[in-house]
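Bug #77: duplicate submission created two jobs. Keeping one. Sequence:
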Amino acid sequence: MFLSHLSKIQKPPMDSRQLRYFAAIYEQGTLSNAAGTCRVAVSALSHHLANLEAEFGAPLFVRKPRGLQPTAAGERLYVHAKSILKAMSAAEKDIREAGTEIAGEVSVGMAYSAVKAIGVDLARRIVSDYPKVRLSLSESLSGSTLMHLMASEVDIALVYNPPADPRLKTQAVLEEQMVLVGTRAIIGDRDTPVRFADILDLPMILLRQGISARALMDDTNLLRKLEGRAKLQMNSVHAIGASLAAGLGCAIGTKLFMYEHIESGLLHYRPIVEPELSRTLYVCEMADRPATYALEAVRSLILDLVRRSVMDGRWEARMVMP
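Kept job's structure:
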């Protein structure tokens, strides 16, 4: 009995090898394919999987005739495993490269407007200033960008109006004033401001409800009013832009949002008052994920490019970052 009790308290904790094996099984779908990827015996993977399931007290996969299907517990563990393994890999590279030229891989997620304003400049500066940094730049709607960050698919993200979340480390960067955008036939031919109450009577096109819609404005109460009146809701900037140009409705955005169409005269914009509407751009990182030297360099570069784009008028916004 004593030996049995001792074996329980001396049970080795879960280690990175088990996580790597588990992730391989999840991604490959079968023990045999995962064994080939990890270059270990199928029996060894099966043993490690059994130990993990015993440690968690829950099955991680359902055995099917054609492979393994993750359970809810397996899905959750995979999310954590990806984050842990990525952090461990980054830490190893970071320590090895300390004191040498900045190098490594950095994944950046940006909302659509941020890519338009600084995306090309960021790529250009990385190539010229940090030739050993490998940049991965992803563009998506603001809410999707945040989800990519929380799923460990990007290391740093530029997001509008992120929700309060203890898992996030956020820094407010700039504030943009929102305008009404549409054809002159829909929003009027004047340049004078339009009242928010009057906007509710227009055929509105909005981002689809959910976390992406938060990027539209800071005031969630006003956002709910718009969502209740929206004629169309879309989850595509391209689709919204094409619908605006086709005269199917109008949208609340920034001048940068539809800059080319506004400059060409195809679309018109009017300021919004009573109240004025704004949104705030944040630089976001995961609070529990330490930054590498490469990530710190890229973060500093992003903030510098944002500041410069505001100062030279390419990005019509007010800096809130010190």
